[in-house]
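I am hoping you can look over what I have pasted underneath with an eye to the fold:
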Amino acid sequence: MWTVYNWLNKVWPWFKRVIPPKYHESARALARHLVSFLSAGSGFECPICKGRFRELWPWGRTNELVQCPGCASQDRERAIYLFMKKRTNIFNDNLKVLHLAPEWSLSLVLKNLPNLDYVSADLAKPFAMEKIDITRIPHPDSSFHAVICCHVLEHIPDDRKAMSEMLRVLRPGGWALITVPVRDADTTYEDPTITSRQGKLKAFGEGSHVRWYGRDFKEHLAASCFLVDVVRFGEVFTEHEARIHALITRDDMYVCSKKTEDQESQQNESTDCTNRKTEDLSTDDTDSHR
């Protein structure tokens, strides 16, 4: 089973040695395009690449069967795409969008939308358009109508500063879509003394994570002055959509917005919130994160 996927994995290390890093994702996409027809069939329809396949390919260290053979999107990426189609104006209105730690397939779709002034950014991904530190975003205040930041903050030691930076670059009334892994607990767990990859894997579920958020994540965002609405993916999609598109449904989308000028005038911003933004933007921190 998955002989095509296994073959790609075997030949890919050789290709990586001869292809410049910035072309790695494009090369993988071309290889998938050439061989994905071998997995063609019915049972799964990808909303991103529109392909129809009889099987999904494994992904990640657990080899979950969630990867589209056509575009390599995973269940969470497809859920984010459809969430945006159903619940946002990103496919219709003229917007300037910042996509942090962009997912490959989703970024291709957004980059090619004629109504968007689209910027993707990451410290490590070579296909990202800009190389930036999320705790020091090199764009002026109120630069973007929307920010997309999915499964990023759990990697960032100073997540409070990253949240403040996302708020800063949003225009009044702008929105941010944020997701993180959330454990079945009321409070977030972090321990800065855990520094080894094995220790982080045991404590936080992944070797590159620095915390495991709890159900208080909404309060973390609100403390950074976001207006926050929590939407469970399972509430957005029908059972048929979840099955045919192989979507993740158990995760939450944190739909955050920045107060409009009218909202600011009607409700005075708390002193604690104002001080936090000032402190975060004035702190001299030269460390770079994802």
Summary: The chain has two domains: 3-67, 75-281.
